């Protein structure tokens, strides 16, 4: 009996020793922290893993309270409940995720597995393993954060396989392009391009992708319903450990507004520059005109002055020998030159007025056909009948309320111009007809015409067309005509073709 | 025999005054009223001197000067009488071959003196 008992005791001891050795070996073999809790004596034994994971030296006399206190406060209640439920149901295993405090006070994420032994439905011993899953959890959290960024950002994110077939797009993509994820998956991102997408930019992107480089470009894209929008895209190739291309990642920012703003700015700068250039051109033009005027005025005044000078010299030198009639003739010539210069001065003053409505107007009732006939005759005489004026009057108006001086000024200038600028021709046309509540005067010649680039400038005082240099003139005629027509509330227009001729048209209102 | 002067001037009153002054000074005067007839008359009347305006329609005083200088009678003196008074115009006139460049208005004394000096030279 005693012998049997001794033998059994020896066997148990051996078994226990074997078990202890196995436990020790197992504890050393695993990185996990193994603990053994004797509930009856409230004693917990820890393996070396505790030192590795949490930094605690081997402790053999820890109580449940010590263990419980090291659980993260937020996890304690759940763990207590879980344990209670497990014990109540006499379950032999429990798995849980919890955070355990290290010796330095920080917490680590732990996957805990517990085996429970019962005696008479009461737990007597718990053996547990605590696996350090801290890095895994942190990495997981990191991935969660990143995927949150990728899916929630306003930017468009596209992930494709190496063949540029779309694997994933984010909400930002769906929102901006109008395509849903299911519509684009498996397709190429080229579905976003359209007729106005710049081919050169696409070529640059293609080159970068083919050579495995990242690329940043601005591209015009199209939404599903065809609206244009600008993207600044950044494409990055993703390689595996063997440097094999496994994915393309594109992050794209909507820069439509920025692009529009930029374009608007560029337009504004261009407009301002143009305005400035126009102002400068005008200024240059003005200076040029003034310089030209000095030359022309000099020329125009010098010729009558030369006549006066010669006439007075002539009278002085030969007074005694001259017949009174010859003397009178020369004096009349002098007087004529003075009148000519006076009228030239009037023209200069009129053309120089900045506000045409300051030109005095004195309206009287004139006999229109008679006045026009007289003007035609005067012009033919002053131009030495070099041209016939083909005068056609079809208007019904006889009595016309207007400023006779201004009308004469307008028509004499236009008729004289028509004759002056059609050398070698022998006729100019002058027609007068009725329009609605107005009367139209049309003067056309088959002369040298006005170069298109000079037509607008001709209304600037003293400006003369580039092809008129061999024909004398002040460069005041059309300026005066335009101002006089404005004063009479009329409209003046010119049509001209080089070497074909010019047609001047004056329309004056008729008061009923 | 009196010397023959061809006057080319398109301004009627001035041309007439020049004609009177030169005639009274004893010259034979032919007056052309534009550039074209000026050149025609030059070859027709064979003048001893040409007095020409500069700015005229179609054929200018410079054209006339050039025509004379490149003709068989290239040595006939040419006097330009013009309202173009800038130094540039004067230089151009003389460079083209005019013997003298007179600015309007000028006195009849200066005109006669200039003509005389040129005709006596030739």
End-to-end separation of chain B in angstroms reads: 15 Å
- The structural class of chain B is alpha/beta
Radius of gyration of chain B: 13 Å
Beta-sheet strand percentage of chain B? 15-25%
Q: What share of residues are in beta strands of chain A?
A: 25-35%
Helix content bin of chain A = 40-55%
Low-confidence stretches of chain A: none
Largest sheet of chain A: 5 strands, antiparallel
Number of strands of chain A: 17
Polypeptide structure, described:
The complex is a heterodimer of chains A (512) and B (122). With 512 residues, chain A is an alpha+beta fold. Chain A contains 14 helices and 17 strands. Chain A has helices at residues 2-29, 49-54, 64-69, 73-88, 134-152, 171-177, 181-184, 199-210, 256-318, 324-352, 368-382, 404-420, 452-455, 477-487; strands spanning 33-38, 43-46, 93-101, 107-119, 122-132, 156-160, 166-169, 215-222, 228-239, 245-254, 364-367, 388-393, 399-402, 427-435, 438-444, 491-497, 501-509. In chain A, the strands form 4 sheets. In chain A, strands 2-1-5-4-3 form a 5-stranded antiparallel sheet. In chain A, strands 7-6-10-9-8 form a 5-stranded antiparallel sheet, sandwiched between helices. A 5-stranded mixed sheet of chain A has the order 12-14-15-17-16, covered by helices on one side. In chain A, helix 9 runs antiparallel to helix 10 (324-352), helix 11 (368-382) crosses helix 12 and helix 12 (404-420) packs antiparallel against helix 14. Chain A is rod-shaped, with a radius of gyration of 54 Å. Helices cover 47% and strands 19% of the residues of chain B. The model of chain B has no long low-confidence stretch (mean pLDDT 93). Chain B contains 5 helices and 5 strands, in the order E-H-E-H-E-H-E-H-E-H. The longest helix of chain B is centred in the last third of the chain and has 14 residues, at 108-121. A 5-stranded parallel sheet of chain B has the order 2-1-3-4-5, with helices on both faces. Chain B has helices at residues 12-24, 35-45, 61-69, 87-96, 108-121; strands at 4-8, 28-32, 49-52, 78-82, 100-103. By secondary structure, chain B is α/β, with parallel strands linked by helices. Chains A and B meet through helix 9 and helix 10 of A and helix 1 and helix 5 of B.
